[in-house]
Predict the structure.
Amino acid sequence: MNNIRSTLATVWRIAIPYFRSEDKWAGRGLLAAVIVIELALVGTDVLVNQWRNRFYNALQAKDWDGFVRENIIFCVLAAISVVLSVYQLYLNQWLQIRWRNWMTTQYLGEWLHDANHYRMQLQGDAADNPDQRITDDVKLFVGQTLSLGVGLLSSIVSLASFVVILWGLSAEAPLHMFGNTFAIPGYLVWGALIYAIFGTALTQWIGSPLVHLDFQQQRLEADFRFNLVRVRENSEQIALLQGEGADRQRLSERFGRVVANWYGIMSRTKRLTAFTQSYSQAAVIFPMILAAPAYFANKIQLGALLQAAEAFGKVQEALSFFVSIYRTMAEWRAVVARLDGFEKAISGAAALATSPGSIGKLSSPGGEIDLRELLVRLPNGAPLVAAKSLSLRRGERTLVTGPSGSGKSTLFRAIAGIWPFGSGSISIPANASLMTLPQKPYFPIGPLHAAIVYPAEAETFGPDRVRDVLTQVGLPQLGPRLEEEAHWNRMLSLGEQQRLGLARALLHAPQYLFLDEATASLDEPSEAALYRLLEEKLPGTAIVSIGHRSTLQAFHQRNAVLVRDGEQFALKDGGERATTP
């Protein structure tokens, strides 16, 4: 019961925001329509159950007029049932896509808000494979929540409706055993209740391990798919290293875990199916066994016997709702757990940025970025980089050097506001624009024009302006390809990608530009030409570079060096120096 209450509380927390959102009236209206139609379908079932009594009595009495009349009534009821079923499905699907659209938009917004997606990775595997959670899990949650919710409502209403019928039939057809009549009020109802309790208890006992197995299956499937994508994205490196055998082995091992867990699901499902199918088959004959003696004793007619059997089946089916949907419920609970974990991971990532143990982000009135008593730590709490005091001024060019692994890139992440671990403060001028270019820039799949101007909209910079910048960075041959769609990170060499990254910086003209070995794949003359271009086109921009080439010193006015200081590296300001570009 604790697990059920916990699951229902989680479902309510995940589901209710949609029905309070800007789309609430459409959602509520569609849900109400689906519920009303379901109630109407239950009412139709009750009318068909009463029709069955009259129809078979007419057959037994060889009443031709009654037979014709009941056939006409059945056609009317069948037509109503078909129309209701069609529109219930249509409106249910309409509600599903609107609900899924809203949830997907919300999750994408929260996941991609203020670098939450990056900080979630820093927390480890608290929410593995966000892509699966936003696609498959949201789809399954919406569909299965509606299916289970409407099914539960239908079972409750059916139970209330058919219990009344079954109770009345129990009085008409008292229990006959061994030639004796036993007047047990509602004995058919009690028989259905005992039968359902027995089936529910055994189903829970047999099928409970499926919840964990389904959760694991979704995680393992997503992990296997993610690694397949990784191989596709890094196919060049794999081919150059002739790593196909190693990757085949690694992927086979991951798929082996999928197969092993699936065998566990198969074994448990076989046992559960064997019981539920036996349970369903026995439910066909069980009410006949109870009511048939009354029929043979001439207490009831054939129609009443068949009506009692059907009513018993409806009551038993309603009481056995848990049995019939156990497999679906196991999958649903796994989906709920995954979405719950995803939401908590997003909340945890957002909390990292403002937690007491995080680096403080301040807004300064001046034109400098100030680092004060800054200590950047690793996620495990180990100290990495300490900066007592450093100011980065507009129009000034600073070169940051230090041994590999000393935390230069992590320092840039802290200044950009995506690395929360540490203490001290970083003051950034209000409304200042910052841009960080890594060694391997990111270009979204799509038209080249949109990839270059990212993260701005393509319309922000006209084609002529983009072609002009491409010529400046040494890529005039890409000018005619601005409307071509491709996976540019795979189509272009790393040197070309770095040139495009600098083209992006020239277009956006940030006030602070951080270059994390952003020209490392270029030859020294090309690198020198591009730094001169940045100095010419962005004279008011503060440029802060990470690099290992000594030739970079000529293009920077200041040096900042990371040196070993006990367990950490300390950032030392080398002061200004003359430049000779």
Q: What stands out?
A: The chain has two domains: 2-354, 360-576.
